[in-house]
UniProtKB/TrEMBL annotation:
Domain AMP-binding enzyme C-terminal: 73-143
GO biological process: acetyl-CoA biosynthetic process
SUPFAM superfamilies: Acetyl-CoA synthetase-like
Annotated GO MF terms: acetate-CoA ligase activity
Gene for this chain: Acss1_0
Name of the protein: ACS2L synthetase
Length: 144
């Protein structure tokens, strides 16, 4: 039972080998943080039985009104809604704040396809406000 960064010790077919026109950035991002390993950028939890559970990106932080908020934290709350199959949350540029609240992309569960988008967005804002904080509620919700 341990959490940490997901790192890979051996190369595999199809892995990234550079960033176009910026190989130095590739080395700094993926090979320098944990020498001898490829750093995926993901967090992971390993159970006592040896199973791995990805916990989200370690570098996905949104700065909302001076509060640093991990996208995985918000996605975890959104995924508890009965209609949501999974979610992806991102920040977006804002003229005044620099970074706006967030945008949530949501595929729905098959039996929830007729769910009204406005109702779903309102329920998710309320859920996030209760579980995290009012400032964390997304400005936009996009059902995909």
């Amino acid at each position: 039972n341990i959490s940490g960064a997901l790192c890979i010790s051996q190369a595999w077919p199809g892995m990234a080998r550079t960033i176009y026109n910026d190989h130095k950035r590739f080395l700094e991002t993926y090979l320098t943080p944990y020498p001898g390993f490829f750093f995926t950028g993901d967090g992971v939890y390993r159970t006592s039985e040896g199973y791995y559970q990805l916990t989200g990106r370690l570098d996905d932080i949104i700065n909302i009104s001076g509060h640093r908020l991990g996208t995985a934290e918000v996605e975890d709350v959104v995924n508890h809604h009965v209609a949501v199959a999974e979610s992806a949350v991102i920040g977006y540029p804002h003229e005044i704040k620099g970074e706006g609240k967030m945008l949530a992309f949501l595929p729905l569960k098959p039996l929830s396809q007729s769910y009204c988008t406005a109702t779903l967005a309102a329920e998710l804002r309320e859920l996030i406000s209760k579980k995290i904080a009012k400032y964390a509620a997304p400005d936009y919700v996009q059902v995909t």
